[in-house]
Design goal:
Length: 225
């Protein structure tokens, strides 16, 4: 008796039964038969496209708005923030914000930057350079934090500066409404000029601008009391 032949027949027979039953059970995969005749379940293949970067920023954008607010505030802070340290602090981060005045309809766009460094003096950013053609905007200090208890041990105080600068609406829309390929691939560069001469340069993805624009378009401001 050909035991191997019987086993292969049984496996093929079982595969045919599974092929009929699995779709009824919600399984979207298939059946794979190996060279030895063994049958395994094949993982279902996703037919939906993976989300784009702009999809991610649109989905993670936050909105602060209610009937007691005169402005709706939109932010991409949660889009790519990495928590670090025991207290979940973020040494360096940058994100976009938009303030939509519900009385006038006017929108103000901002870049919020957090700088963390070790120094005996503050860097004090005073100007942001960005855009095409090159533009400048004054920076505004939002918060300062300093810890000097281990200054001698680490060679300076641990300092954190939070600063913001405004981006003209025309520049914001130039990025947010760029070609889809550019939105997914390009970055928007900026530089903070500092009083101590140690300038800070970084970038934001075009997708972050596009994602924030989509989140704003999808939100209907809450009527004020």
């Amino acid at each position: 008796m050909d035991v191997g032949g019987v086993m292969r027949f049984k496996v093929h027979e079982l595969s045919a039964v599974l092929a009929l039953l699995l779709p009824l059970c919600g399984w979207a995969g298939g059946i794979e038969t190996g060279a030895s005749g063994s049958a395994t379940l094949a993982a279902p293949q996703s037919t939906s496209p993976s989300p784009s970067r702009s999809d991610h920023f649109a989905a993670t954008a936050t909105v602060k708005d209610d009937a007691l607010e005169t402005s709706a505030v939109y932010s991409t802070e949660k889009g790519h923030q990495e928590k670090r340290g025991l207290l979940g602090l973020v040494p360096e981060d940058q994100f976009l914000r938009c303030f939509h005045d519900k009385r006038t309809g006017k929108r103000r766009y901002q870049v919020y930057v957090t700088l963390a460094y070790k120094s005996d003096t503050w860097r004090e950013p005073f100007q942001a350079n960005f855009g095409t053609p090159l533009q400048t905007a004054p920076t505004k200090s939002a918060l300062r934090q300093s810890d000097c208890k281990d200054r001698r041990k680490i060679g300076g105080c641990v300092r954190i500066e939070h600063v913001v600068f405004e981006v003209p609406e025309a520049e914001f829309r130039r990025i947010a409404e760029a070609a889809p390929a550019d939105i997914e691939a390009k970055t928007w560069d900026f530089r903070l000029k500092t009083k101590d001469g140690k300038d800070y340069a970084d970038q934001l993805p075009y997708a972050e601008f596009a994602g924030l624009a989509r989140a704003m378009a999808a939100h209907k401001p809450v009527a004020m009391r």
